[in-house]
Amino acid sequence: xxxxxxxxxxxxxxxxxxxxxxxxxxxxxxxxxxxxxxxxxxxxxxxxxxxxxxxxxxxxxxxxxxxxxxxxxxxxxxxxxxxxxxxxxxxxxxxxxxxxxxxxxxxxxxxxxxxxxxxxxxxxxxxxxxxxxxxxxxxxxxxxxxxxxxxxxxxxxxxxxxxxxxxxxxxxxxxxxxxxxxxxxxxxxxxxxxxxxxxxxxxxxxxxxxxxxxxxxxxxxxxxxxxxxxxxxxxxxxxxxxxxxxxxxxxxxxxxxxxxxxxxxxxxxxxxxxxxx
Length: 277
Prior knowledge:
The protein is an alpha+beta fold. It has two domains: 137 residues, Gyrase A, domain 2; 82 residues, Elongation Factor Tu (Ef-tu), domain 3 (Beta Barrel), CATH 2.40.30. The protein is built from eight helices and 13 strands.
């Protein structure tokens, strides 16, 4: 069973009688839809609707575990403590450092909902559960399925949930009550104004480094993120990409000719000029 150790992850446990109500009113994930055996993506947004912190969340009995980037841990705990006020909520940083991910038929729960949508069973466990490889295999799997990570594929405070497919991966709810930034995100959903999306980038040769501009006729439509050989991820303007593809125009990452595809599990397609009109 393939596995990888991700040293840059940390874990927080949020419990107490008010924990679910507290989180439900703050984060993008609908906790009512969160099963006992899964991790779902989630975020705490700015009032302007951009992702301030992103994470994965799972149930831990009557409490919740949050898997977050280690470099965001202290700021996240400080922000959640500020919101807590007099609520009966306990916020505890767990001692485990890093996370172990395993995938394949033998992977155990809780499973990552994002990969399940793509047909792959992938489990996440706090700490170094067993000897595991480095993160290269996991990054290649993310690229294959179109699963982005902040820091590698987008920067916090610079992306909306729609940009990183949270609206398709169970990371944002449009039916539950208000949460921070909800008004902006709901407006994008109902007006169908999301144009920046995660795409899978492919080439016939090794792709250039992360951060390389993706261009059409010399004009940038996005930036290359995680790279795994001849494949990579990027967040691009899919309206511009769709126009170019329909017209047979070339798309480049630096000097490398590329093709773009939306993750199959997202159900999205590149809009045509007629649809945009």
